[in-house]
Amino acid sequence: MLRYIVTRTGSLCLSLLVASVVIFALIEVVPGDPVAFMLGLNAQPDTVAALREELGLNASVLERYFSWVFGLLQGDLGTSYTYRSPVSEIVAERLVISLPLAAYALALTILIAFPAGILPAAYRGRAADVAVMGGTQLGVAIPNFWFAMIMVMIFAINLRWFSAGGFPGWEAGFFPAMKALTLPAIALALPQASILARVMRSALLDTLGSDYIRTARAKGLTKGQALRRHALRNALIPVLTILGLQFSFLLAGAIIIENVFFLPGLGRLIFQAISQRDLIVVESVVMLLVFAVIFVNFIVDLAYAWVDPRLRVQT
Amino acid sequence: MSVLQIENLSLAIHGARILRHISLSIGPGEIHGLIGESGSGKSMTALAVMQLLPEGAEASGAVSLAGQSVVTLRDADMCTLRGATVGMVFQEPMTALNPLLNIGQQVAEVIALHDNLSRSKAFVRAAEVLERCELPRDQFPLTRYPHELSGGQRQRVVIAMAIAMKPKLLIADEPTTALDVTTQAEILKLIKRLADEDEMAVLLITHDLAVVTGLADDISIMRNGEIVEQGKGAMLHRTMTHPYTKALFSASGHQPERAQAGQDRALLSVENVTCSYALPRKTLLQVPERFIAVNDVSFELHQGESLGLVGESGCGKSTLTRAILGLEPLQSGTVRLDGAEMTGTADDLALRRKMQVVFQDPYSSFNPRHKVDRLIAEPFHLLGRTARMDEIDEALVSVGLSPTDKEKYIHEFSGGQRQRIAIARALIIRPELIILDEAVTALDVSIRAQILDLLADLSEQFSLSYLFISHDLSVVRRVTDRVLVMRAGRIVETGETEQVFTNPQNPYTRKLIAAVPQLSDA
Fold first, then answer.
1. Do A27 and A140 have their domain in common?
2. Would you call A207 an interface residue with chain B, using a CB distance cutoff of 8 Å?
3. ipTM here
4. Which residues of A273-282 are buried (b: 16+ CB within 10 A; e: fewer)?
5. Beta-strand (E) ranges in A214-262?
6. How many contacts (CB atoms, under 8 Å) link A and B?
7. Is residue B38 in a domain?
8. A48 and A195, same domain (yes or no)
């Protein structure tokens, strides 16, 4: 098991190294000089030169790459060209919204998907199965921004249970902040939960048809016991795979939902940074997201080994 | 009083009649053999006793288990009987265990469930039960997972789960069909011992007459959902009256009429062939170790000859077959066909048309979306032309099918017919050598007898040579001229088939032959 963790950690570091090179190279070839963008069309050549010197853009490619990577390792993400403040501060401000939002949405996804996947598998072909399968079909089909707007109309405008958008900040207290994140989290979670419930159902149906479930029944377990003790954990492997992919999506893919609810999250930050050629912000946020995705996959890999003894490499 | 009493049991699934008026009874300590070919309803009889029938099943008649009628029992009550009063062992030990739980957890579960014991006490009992099933704790600690055990060891774990509560009845549904002969003999001995020790009744379901005749007190022969004959185990071959029973006995020992062995010209010669696999590396930088699957093997197959290759699973038979077919790279050695060396490149095309193969599973070795004419014309790419209609018709006729069958899909055929189609596919480009890789293993005895006859006829008609690979020694004995015995990648014995079987020289060959269940002589 230890060896498995070590090799997984090694592959995590290697992936991060490759990702940093690719991201840096991509940003290098992107057209548009950030300095020209910042100073406007009529900038004096010597002003441009001075600013380039100040931002460190005149150093060689290798020098800039290494100073960026070493900065990252120390938590120093550089200074934003447009905001003129440390990128780490800007990102941290956004992360306190995006990360809880993603976690909230993920928790809702699991809370909805597990029962919604287990129920139809246990009662295959019955009313519960048909209802859940129909519901998840809708959940997958409806675009989440449209669903978000409908929720705003119902719960914020008509019923006035929630505010229509914005974020009061964590200073306002835990519950008001969570309340502000509730509608966006539901909007994000619903399609993901629909997908996950379907994966859960088919994975469970697969395992319920397997020989060891028949063995479990022959041992005297009831249908429910066989499902809980033997089928569920075996069905978890495909579910974990999807869950890992979904977390990365929830973290980075919330741009539209953040816009609908006026949430100053990571998605909006990267969108603005790209349009303003604030490449140092783009670079750092993309790196951060890549790190999040790779790290989540690392956690999923460890979870696989926890679930499935066949993956624990013998030492 | 009998432990299991089945009276007039009939069963229909979604209206289709599966069982008709089954009656049998088993007393304490008795072993009852239930024999039939696939689809005869023997497994459904077992599932009816367990009340684990598929959805849509409707049973009538009476099944009483230790005096309790089970047909009308609620599932909750049935759950207290399953595992406690009746235990069941299934055919496939590879999939019958939950891969995510260790063997201790799986055996302890049944004990904890029925005896309401604490975890630790259940584990102590589980260790004792596994010990009874010859899995001593020092070699097989409770923390072993199923994937760390061999097929035979897994079957012992399944048996341990079934007998943990000392049930009055053990149902064993083809418990040894998936196992090698030596493992089969050990498992059967274990079941016999447990039945004697616990006074446990056993319903032993199998398609193999030889497995039960030496073991069972009573035997029932099933066909198309009915019991056609019942009798005393050791006496059945003398007392049998039903034509189906007689046909089954004669098919089991069927000896196809074969022409005399061919000439001395070597058709296939395998010289010092070695194949190995890289094992997963233990550390990142270490050179991975290699597992030698085929170790310096040499033999010749003469024209017109039928050569057997026997050995237990994992002995390297399959790797050797793949090496001969050019599907596996050789680490060293050469394979010659008709004197020309196989190079493993595209130049082999002309050579490869002289050799075709028939695999074990007649279903999964066909593409289900193609019609039969396209399926059996596949080898024509070796000739660089397409098949003519008359060639397809001729191939189908020669294996006993009709030319009109070429318009059908593979799912429209029975297992035996599918294997005929596989042979037609091998035959169609007139090869000189056909490799039969467990080609009759999955077939019922009567179908197997027909296919063996067909192979004998075709050999004469087209002067074919066969390399007959099987773990079923009794079949190999009846259809081959010479035999090779393989163990751990090496050929340990080779000789005339009759000579090897009557006077085996190698101790491993002796052990293998001794393990083969014998039909008592009629």
1. no
2. no
3. 0.80
4. beebbbbbbb
5. none
6. 76
7. yes
8. no
